[in-house]
Write a structure and sequence with these properties.
Distance between the termini: 75 Å
Strand content: over 45%
Order of helices and strands: HEEEEEEEEEHEHEEEEEE
Number of helices: 3
Number of strands: 16
Helix content: 10-25%
Shape: globular
């Protein structure tokens, strides 16, 4: 009887431990984000690719992202504007407005050199693409492909996937935790819960040999692995290394904005 009791207690303890480990996965809800850490002003990242681990760098872009505190329809908000430059032109611009308290999207407009423009108003439900209004009443399959994901996003708390470099600083970091973020890239596919795991800490070499303490944040799926270096002090994303197949993409935060 004593032996059976010991076995039972051991199994019970094991189950409790397993349950405890599961609590390390948290869904990001409005009360868990801290928008106060965002640093107003212009920030820039160098973005480039490598076609193999030992291949030369290629396909260079500069991403400029400017953060401002504004008022939007009488509500405190945070505006993020983006300008993406390739070797000789501007290829993409966006203006995103998010709630200052929980960073939910209020408004998003974007322009691509090859695709034109889209605007989504999360307060009124208006969606325009290249000056055409996409309404719920329009039954055209092409319209529904864009409109239905937007309608789903309107009924949920989502964060703007196009602002991932601004979203990651907002999270409550600690060791061995997985964040589930309900991401929606405005004008794209429907909202999706995406897991990101804090796998540990490391130091990143900065200017003048300065060593910067960073969290390592990872996301993996078939044929795609992303590792982000997040500064423990400023909460900024300092580096991304992404591997998809045999190719790599990097984002490196530049120390100066001009």
């Amino acid at each position: 009887m004593v032996k059976i009791s010991v076995i039972f207690i051991t199994l019970l303890s094991s189950n409790i431990l397993s349950f405890g480990q599961k609590t390390d996965t948290i869904r990001i809800t409005p009360e868990l984000v801290n928008t106060k850490v965002l640093i107003p002003g212009t920030h820039r990242w160098l973005v480039y690719f490598k076609m193999g681990a030992d291949s030369p760098r290629t396909m260079f872009n500069i991403w400029s992202r400017t953060i401002n505190k504004i008022s939007h329809n009488g509500k405190d908000a945070i505006e993020v504007t983006q300008v993406w430059e390739d070797k000789d032109s501007i290829m993409h611009t966006t203006r995103s407005v998010s709630d200052a308290k929980d960073f939910r999207t209020l408004y998003h407009t974007s322009w691509w050199k090859q695709r034109g423009s889209t605007s989504l108003d999360f307060s009124t439900g208006e969606f325009t693409m290249n000056n055409r209004s996409l309404t719920k009443q329009d039954t055209a399959q092409r319209v529904k492909r864009f409109r239905e994901p937007f309608d789903k996003a309107l009924s949920q708390y989502t964060l703007n996937w196009h602002l991932d470099l601004e979203v990651f600083p907002l999270l409550p970091y600690k060791n061995n935790i997985t964040f589930l973020i309900n991401y929606y890239d405005p004008g794209s596919q429907e909202p999706k819960w995406v897991p990101y795991t804090v796998t540990g800490s490391t130091k990143l070499s900065g200017l003048d040999g300065q060593m910067v303490d960073c969290w390592l944040l990872e996301h993996s799926e078939p044929n795609n692995k992303e590792v982000f270096w997040i500064s423990k002090k400023t909460k900024e994303v300092l580096k991304l290394e992404q591997q998809f197949g045999t190719r790599y993409r990097y984002k490196i935060k530049l120390p100066f904005s001009n």
